[in-house]
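We modelled the chain as a single entity of 215 amino acids. Its sequence is:
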Amino acid sequence: MNAGRALWVLGAYLAGTLPSAWLVARARSAGDVFREADRSRSEGDAHVLLKERSGGAWAAVAATADVLKAFGYALAARFVGDLPPAWLAPVGVLLVAGHSFPPYARAFAGRGLAAAAGATLALVPWAMVAAGVTILAGYPLGLTGPASTAAFALMPAVVLALGDPPALALMAAGILAVILLRRVEGSGRLVARVGLSRALLYRMVFDRDGPPLRG
């Protein structure tokens, strides 16, 4: 095994754990966010609470930092580390895994989308552009949850259709798996309330603890 390449892969997880939401909440002295952050509930996500308690601008700062940490590291792995696709694939997946499942500041861990956007923008940029268009299309309808699910579910096929290496299509599938695993974490109470099938629908497709809001 190439030790240098292995270090890039390990570093991807560590880079993904950078707790942007925690740093912003600390800078804002947002005690209510610290008290209410709950990774087991979609609506308890620290990024959502930052928007509600401190305003959209601060939530955007945290989200942008999450995108940039993954984008910057993946870009460095690609061009500085000169990693081939077979090694870039685990880098992309582990950036999202670190973002979603860090060993510290766990209540402030993201749900995967920001890190996924950054990693894929660096490694499969045109596929991420297509995904971004899909997500934006759902915004005016209030359907960003299912739009993001569809965007990342389709990404492996889009990667292959654009002629990118199969390893990066596997990366896109792995990223989707991490996102869905993060969404279903702590869903026991929701299952008890609405049943398994509805709980999985709400969490995995809509990224909510209930049916989508109708505006």
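As a brief sanity check on the tokenised model: The chain is about 75% helix and 0% strand. The chain has a mean pLDDT of 90.
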